[in-house]
Design goal:
four-stranded antiparallel sheet; 0% helix; mainly beta; single chain; 124 residues
Length: 124
Amino acid sequence: QVHVVESGGGSVQAGGSLRLSCVASGYTYWYSMAWFRQVPGKEREGVAAIYPSTGNIYYGDFVKGRFTISQDNTKRTLYLQMNSLKPEDTAMYYCATTSQYTIRWDDGRLYDFWGQGTQVTVSS
């Protein structure tokens, strides 16, 4: 049984940093591991993704060098280091994984497993 669990959210002032973690267990191979975020009333958007087998990394345009996605040596723990946070980064952040080929890393419909989310709040 697959479990995806995020941690590391919280409240921070603008310009601050947070590090999110995600542990995906119950499966040995992931094609893509990604972070998404969503604000109530708005569409979910892709933040960043990594393809463990190739090392390819993708970021949403809004990241602009502020966030870094990485994984540990087991490739089951995913991180998102977020620096220079802005109030508009306030959202629920979700970790998502899939073992299937994903033609678009930021299409949430292609991901099979999701965590419960961790709230990030950035105050001005």
